[in-house]
Inverse folding.
């Protein structure tokens, strides 16, 4: 008899697990997605031919397996800059209990389609502070010293030296983590305000574990070493071995945005005998003891509820929702899971005729004033804008009219707060006014816009997060349950980390193992834990 795995969520983690099960086992995946399209936060929003990448997804990984996996789905374009090519094929259809559900988001691509490729893109991101651009990561360049001023630069250098000689110990908070790597003065200049804008709480209340997972080995000394070695590196090397992830200079990118990758993966899942169902929300779990034997699902269109049997449950739903459905007898586990914090996210897509170039870009910038960045960190304290995406620079195919500039203004908020609840038209006016205020556009140049809200975009590392290990221990008691993905593990993973966790889950299923240590060890920096006296990998796996 064929075994079945119900996979909750059609983002990078869920779809990777589904395709890997089909490639490596006799387990049939049934993917249930509550959204109307696949991709999760890595989906591509198409607004009148202008495509939005929510958060900016660089296709780069230190894992050779991930890099090869991506290229097996979408090969690198021969010239890396295809100018034309139109998607071909019909919409994929699914049959479920006699009802046909059209999945407009899933497309089959002809093998020779010029669109069905990955581009090699140059990486450039900068900091916008004091109405000026600073390199990111910061460089000891004439431009940086001029922008900061000699006195401030000297104070930053002295502060960094003090942090290296007398680091903060123990390193428990994100503030400790950042000060130890950049010095107090540089931390307060370029990290503190932006990070607190993102999370809505002081850095002194955020766990240092967030820095270990997101910033990893980046420090002033490594940034300097990277800059000194740059002339000796091969310009076409996409693997970039030995380079910190935050310092990479190029990355792969699907021509039509990140969602193109996951739409293609979903198509391959369907073609290989798996199932993908959209607008399906899991509302109940059923089983005996510690075994989950079925899920209860509500159809978002009809409201109908059905039960689907399963041998395995691979979950990317938020930990707090999964734990509630499992009804833990331990009231403390239930309390911690229910209170796990998240940060929500809004993007205002603005289409503009032109931008106002910064002083560094006036000589070399585009004729429409568009800067060369993929994204810009907005450090200005007088606006709520956190980050600015310039979609033209991710892929020219994301923009319907190349004469225009297609922007994504990113705001970090809490579901239900003033920003989140603002009507779309008012929010677009607010976003355009902020970009005008800091001198990057003129309000009259705004042509069109749209708003996208993403709840639970960022699992947060403060508050009841300190009790996450207790919740994890509870989830590990279910032998056929495999939590993966960003929300499924309450871990701020990149998409490659989510894919590696999915691979680890499939490894367990194929091997008949219920040991989840390999899942939880993904995206954990051994070097960091050794430096701070935390548990080694062997201890964490025990």
């Amino acid at each position: 008899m064929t075994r079945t795995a119900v996979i909750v969520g059609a983002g990078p983690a869920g779809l990777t697990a589904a395709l890997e099960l089909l490639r490596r086992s006799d387990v049939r995946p049934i993917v249930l997605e509550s959204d109307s399209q696949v991709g999760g936060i890595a989906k591509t929003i198409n607004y009148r031919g202008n495509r939005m990448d929510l958060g900016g997804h660089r296709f780069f990984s230190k894992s050779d397996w991930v890099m090869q996996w991506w290229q097996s789905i979408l090969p690198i374009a021969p010239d890396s800059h295809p100018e034309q090519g139109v998607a071909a094929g019909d919409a994929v259809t699914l049959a479920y209990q006699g009802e046909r559900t059209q999945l407009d988001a899933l497309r089959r691509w002809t093998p020779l389609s010029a669109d069905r490729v990955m581009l090699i893109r140059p990486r450039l991101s900068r900091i916008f502070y004091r109405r000026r651009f600073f390199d990111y990561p910061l460089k000891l360049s004439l431009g940086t010293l001029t922008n900061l001023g000699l006195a401030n630069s000297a104070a930053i250098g002295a502060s960094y030296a003090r942090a290296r000689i007398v680091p903060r110990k123990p390193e428990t908070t994100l503030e400790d983590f950042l000060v130890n790597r950049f010095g107090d003065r540089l931390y307060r200049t370029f990290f503190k305000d932006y990070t607190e804008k993102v999370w809505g709480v002081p850095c002194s209340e955020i766990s240092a574990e967030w820095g270990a997972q997101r910033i990893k080995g980046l420090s002033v000394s490594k940034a300097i070493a990277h800059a000194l070695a740059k002339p000796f590196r091969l310009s076409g090397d996409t693997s970039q071995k030995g380079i910190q992830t935050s310092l990479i200079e190029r990355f792969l990118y699907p021509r039509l945005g990140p969602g193109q990758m996951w739409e293609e993966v979903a198509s391959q899942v369907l073609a290989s005998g798996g199932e993908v169902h959209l607008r399906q929300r899991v509302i109940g779990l059923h089983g005996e003891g510690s075994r989950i034997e079925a899920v209860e699902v509500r159809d978002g269109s009809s409201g109908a509820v059905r039960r689907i049997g399963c041998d395995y449950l691979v979950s990317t739903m938020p930990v707090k929702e999964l734990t509630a459905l499992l009804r833990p007898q331990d009231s403390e586990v239930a309390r911690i899971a229910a209170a796990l914090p998240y940060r929500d996210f809004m993007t205002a897509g603005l289409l503009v005729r032109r931008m106002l170039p910064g002083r560094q870009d006036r000589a070399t910038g585009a004729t429409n004033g568009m800067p060369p960045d993929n994204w810009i960190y907005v450090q200005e304290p007088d606006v709520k804008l956190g980050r600015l995406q310039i979609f033209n620079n991710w892929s020219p195919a994301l923009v319907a009219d190349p004469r225009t500039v297609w922007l994504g203004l990113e705001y970090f908020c809490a579901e239900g707060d003033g920003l989140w609840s603002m009507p779309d038209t008012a929010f677009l006016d607010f976003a355009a006014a902020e970009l005008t205020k800091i001198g990057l556009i003129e309000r009259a140049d705004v042509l069109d816009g749209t708003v996208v809200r993403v709840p639970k975009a960022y699992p947060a590392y403060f508050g009841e997060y300190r009790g996450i290990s207790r919740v994890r221990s509870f989830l590990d008691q279910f032998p056929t349950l495999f939590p993966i993905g960003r929300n499924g593990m309450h871990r701020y993973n990149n998409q490659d980390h989510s894919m590696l966790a999915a691979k680890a889950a499939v490894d367990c299923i194929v091997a008949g193992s219920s040991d989840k240590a390999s899942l939880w060890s993904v995206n954990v920096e051994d070097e960091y834990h050794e430096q701070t006296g935390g548990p080694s990998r062997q201890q964490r796996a025990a």
The chain has three domains: 4-42+61-75+92-118+257-338+466-528, 132-243, 342-459. The radius of gyration is 23 Å.
